[in-house]
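retry 2 of 3: previous attempt timed out while embedding guanosine-5'-triphosphate. Reduced batch size to 1 and resubmitted. Inputs unchanged:
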Amino acid sequence: MKNIHEVSPFEKFIEEMRELMEPDEVFIMEGGNNEAKQLADLAQKSEVDGRVVLKKLNGNVYPNSFYHQSNPNDVARTEHLTYVCTLTKSQAGPNNLWMDPHEAKKKMNTLFKGCMKGRTMFVIPFIMGTPSSTMAKNCVQVTDSIYVALSMRIMTRIGKEAIKRIGSSDNFFRGLHSIGEVDPQKRFIMHFPQENTVMSFGSGYGGNALLGKKCYSLRIASYLGRQEGWLAEHMIIIGVKSPDGKVSYFLGAFPSACGKTNLALLEPIFNGYKIFTLGDDIAWINVSRSGQMYALNPEAGFFGVAPGTSSKTNPVMMETLKNDNFFPTLFTNTAINNDDNTPWWENLTDETPENLTDWHGQAYDKTSGKPAAHPNSRFTVSIYNCPTLSPEFDNPKGVPISGIIFGGRRKDTIPLVYECRDWESGVFAASTIGSETTAASTGSQGTLRRDPMAMLPFCGYNMGEYFSHWLEIGKKLKKPPKIFMVNWFRKDEDGKFMWPGFRENFRIIKWMIDRIEERAEAVENEIGLSPTKDGINLTGLDIKPETMDELLSIDKDKWKTEVEQIEEFYSKFDNKIPQELRKILSELKARLNDSD
Ligand code: GTP
Ligand code: SPV
Ligand code: MN
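retry 2 succeeded.
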């Protein structure tokens, strides 16, 4: 028997969870391949809701890969069931659903009480960020899902190293998770930023259940960042090496399912350039004492949208999925090609295979008009499988940032690219990002909503204060990164994308580097700085000059409507919108009216 005084906060937490959830067994994950293989074996023999948790896929095509089919009611994040439970409602802001923390805990404890009877509780100690970094954070999640436990192994750094790093400290994130009965009526994702805790019940889906991801590394971390003077952002990190050997690092924020993973693994189309991948979803950003912005990716894997991924659109990701460095790789809610037991999704191949099982587990009827894979079907794969992984990925300092790209999914109004005049104008533009909603979250799709910095669903506190925090960060920067706005998703009258996107986006990145290196001129207009006529290298691209003009043009009437919508959006934040941003908005309005 251990003396009570020797029990560490980590052990105490496990004991509390055992008492609350009453599992038959407790499995503390120590990491390593053997343990992962043991869990994968167990998952192939276990059923949840009448579905086998993991099925082995063809290892000759996708090594170490498994298929997971979720309950059809559990295929995306559920923002309407996601709460930020700060002491006051105003701390959470109009951007979050709020519940009183006492009430929320009472509700969740009732759900968690005895929820793991007959099940095993997996205890996952993990680190967000490379362990040697001062930015890295210690975390522990408990879960009753083997699928979640294995996914956490891919997405974070789990095991002994985390246990050691936690040591006897009480300072670690606590994540409570159970899939419960996978009942949408009993599904809640509750955040307690003031207690460094998340309670998630009733869902096994990525952003709801892998608590190191959106719950901790964005919602809780953004709250911590505000207090400690750093930023937690929904951003990719890439390095772009130019022919002269210089590497420029970029951050890129796009709402869910708007192209981050694709951009993070881009292959340059021009000779002499190379892209290094550092992250595809989350960046933690700080400013050094000398005023330089640095960023690191707290995650260790990709949880990427499968549909649309192919050797044409994203060859680097296809290679990543076919690498065998890390065990395991998971595919969730894709279809299965029964001819060779491989996962399949829309646009993986030009032809739809004949013999598919759809994501519901039924024989696929091509004439149904429905997709075979769920539009939000995903793969979970280690970043160490990625052939373009940056040698700086594990640099504890992160990488120095010279540009930030913001984008949304807009069929009109927002041009293909423009540069913001300065940091404040960039923060303003980012605070107004609009995007058509996608399948990454449940609810209506294709409707325009404001999604500032692509953080609307992920900012763990009042967004008005978040904008002030961005402005404060700017004051610490000696040479602020240039801020660029992009829109890959402009459509023509027939509803077709006007810009080919994907690999061709590199043309735009190159223009940004030329701007940063002061090699390219720009044209001033009402909203910022646009490329000159020959600013973007279009060599080898079959695009009409009129289309290009249209893509870069600013339609004043549409922009006037845009300004009205921004005013309406800002009005939701009472008096929390910083004066600097209001001023930039009224100056923009005046410029649009003056230039008539
Ligand atoms: P989350 O993981 O949800 O945060 O998404 P993400 O931002 O990483 O998006 P991802 O790169 O997975 O792309 C989502 C969808 O957008 C996929 O269906 C892609 O095929 C599509 N997409 C990505 N880049 C482009 C582009 O440049 N043009 C067009 N038209 N579609 C794109
Ligand atoms: C997103 O929706 O932005 C994702 C997937 O990256 S999830 O992990 O569910 O948040
Ligand atoms: Mn995301």
